[in-house]
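FAQ: What does a ligand-bound record look like?

Like this one, built around pyridoxal-5'-phosphate:
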Amino acid sequence: MKKYKDMSKDELLTLKAALLEEYKEEQAKGLSLNMARGKPGFSQLALSMGMLDEINSSSDMRTLLGNDTRNYGDLDGIGECRQLMADMMEVKKENIIVYGNSSLNVMYDTVSRSMTHGVNGSTPWCKLDKVKFLCPVPGYDRHFKITEFFGIEMINIPLLEDGPDMDLVEEYVNNDPAVKGIWCVPKYSNPTGIVYSDEVVRRFAVLKPAAEDFRIFWDNAYCIHHLYKDKQAEILNILDECEKAGNPDMVYMFASTSKITFPGSGIAALATSPRNVEFIKKQLTVQTIGHDKINQLRHTRFFKNIDGMKAHMDKHADILRPKFEAVLNEFDKELAGLEIGSWIRPVGGYFISFDALEGCAKKIVAMCKDAGVVLTGAGATFPYGKDPKDSNIRIAPSFPSVEEMEAASKIFVLCVKLVSIDKYLG
Ligand code: PLP
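The answer part, i.e. the structure of the complex:
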């Protein structure tokens, strides 16, 4: 296939006319497809329905230690659920606090507490003139919304194929005391699907922050969310590495079972050093009497242990893999070699990230919408919703069916081609 940049004006115009015909045919089908949100599909949710049978009116409601889950107690989670989340996050049980059903809520709380009460006794961030966060981009829009909500200045850090640009991270963190945190999705990142290398994790652990209350917000949302049995990414354990490097308190790790059981009714957890756990629990005792322990019991009885959870994730992978491949195969078939976009083949997580030619993302998203395909808004993957190059588009293949993903991908590549031609035509 000839690269668009090597085509003459006439060639581009002829191609455009043919593609426009195809686009109009697609438009006439009146499709309504949504690739905007990383939601599990119906059949994925069905995988966990058996969990609801684990507890009924004649069930023994006690934990392994004999505590009654219907009553007060176990503020930081029932023992067996803390153990399960610890095994999932590859940390020790003493590092874990189990929360409610949303890890995003825990992240919000963590920033909020730091604003009002500081970090382990440091000056509350709200009393400082300036608080800054580093934001590897493209990244997760809801992280950026939290820091924006609290008026924290966000600094873009390019996300490379093995993690954030660590030269830049070191420069900011080690020199600027206003830099208090960084958002990280270390495994199967949202949206690029990249995995942090061991070197990147080690460089994080040995940071020498100018601010003693600097924290790494390590959102391991996709820690066991592999797509292929023979390509399962492993990352170094950041808590262990930080401890070895003499920075034991520098990281908060987050995860949940939102995309394992139910996003509407899962289990979220925070993992951090015992010193941080102690400080956080002082707030927790004021904040709540406790979270939903019956749901914790349901989860632990359903999975039994981490092996049960991993076997369950294999079933998710079987459902998700063909949807990812529907998109990637269409990209390979229709876009490879044209040099009008680039993408990474994720082997886990929930997203495919596409980088269009500069200045084309918004137009592609709008054109897809006009043909019935809804994508995440262009720019959403950057702080303040502003992609400086207007090039990144996030695709979420999990919710539609495989057939719908095939149809949507077809429209997507058509729009990429048409908008790119227009760019070259000027
Ligand atoms: N973190 C990342 C990186 C995500 O992509 C998502 C959801 O898409 C979440 C957190 C949300 O997690 P939860 O449902 O536990 O709030």
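Follow-up question: can I read anything off the structure? Yes, for example: Residues 38, 102-104, 140, 185, 190, 219, 221, 256, 258, 263, 268 surround pyridoxal-5'-phosphate (CB under 6 Å).
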